[in-house]
Amino acid sequence: MKSNAPNDSEPVLRDHAYDGIQEYDQKLPNWWLFTWYITMVWFVIAWVAYYQFGMGMADEAAIDTAMAKIAEHQKRELEQINDDKLWDMSKDPKIVAAGAATYSATCIACHAPDMSAKLAGAKLPGLALNDKEWKHGNSPVQLLTIIRKGAPDVTKGMPPWEPQLGINRVVEVLAFILSKHEKGEAFTLAPDSPLKK
Ligand code: HEC
């Protein structure tokens, strides 16, 4: 049996033998050991930086995380929205002005600049939004749903606007529509309303 005395040219063998097999007992080179230790330390640093602080995350992953936070926040806000809050917004000149701009850019083609759904005597595809008869809801919260998600029957041609405008502009444009109405005015459901049972 060879001794354990280190000798660069001779492999060092362990004392014990299993079934006549002996193991080498050699120290790994320092450069190898240090590289290994560095990878261990680096693992901890990288794990904390990436997963805990989001450092160095791919843009896409970082955006996904941020968007999920925003969506969660909006969901909480939307759960708290009610008719009174929407009527209050319709009295806020800033919100109404922003809504008017969105309306001009997005809604007039079908609902007409004056919301009558008529232009120069011709009937436009949309429904009048300045009258007291509603097909898809007689409360602001119901109208909010229609503007966000579109008409239940897509073939009728009212598209969902939330994906394109985002919830803020949808709320603003509804505030603008409500500004042409009075809180507490009698809204009636149209004869062909799906809400009429
Ligand atoms: C491509 C045409 C088109 C555009 C653009 C459009 N709408 Fe409509 N909208 C319609 C149609 C058609 C209906 C009726 C759907 C039905 O009969 O089910 C409707 C219905 C509505 C209703 C429900 C009316 C009711 O009586 O219940 C609201 C509110 C409304 N639209 C708001 C908007 C707003 C706000 C915009 C702009 C962001 C907009 N619409 C853009 C076609 C359009």
Question: What does it look like?
Answer:
With 197 residues, this protein is mainly α. It has two domains: 13-52, no CATH class; 77-189, Orthogonal Bundle (Cytochrome Bc1 Complex, Chain D, domain 2). It contains seven helices and six strands, in the order ββαααααβββααβ. The strands form three sheets. The protein has a two-stranded antiparallel ribbon with strand order 1-2. Strands 3-4 form a two-stranded antiparallel sheet. β1 and β2 (21-24) form a beta hairpin. α3 packs across α7 and α4 (93-106) crosses α7. It is rod-shaped, with a radius of gyration of 34 Å. Bound molecules: heme C (HEC). Heme C is lined by residues 106-107, 109-111, 125-127, 129, 134-137, 143, 146-147, 151, 153, 156-158, 161, 173. Heme C binds at residues 106-107, 109-111, 125-127, 129, 134-137, 143, 146-147, 151, 153, 156-158, 161, 173.
Bound molecules: heme C
The share of residues in extended strands comes to 5-15%
Main sheet makeup = 2 strands, antiparallel
Give the total of beta strands: 6
Averaged pLDDT, please?
89
CATH level-four homologous superfamily name of the largest domain: Cytochrome c-like domain
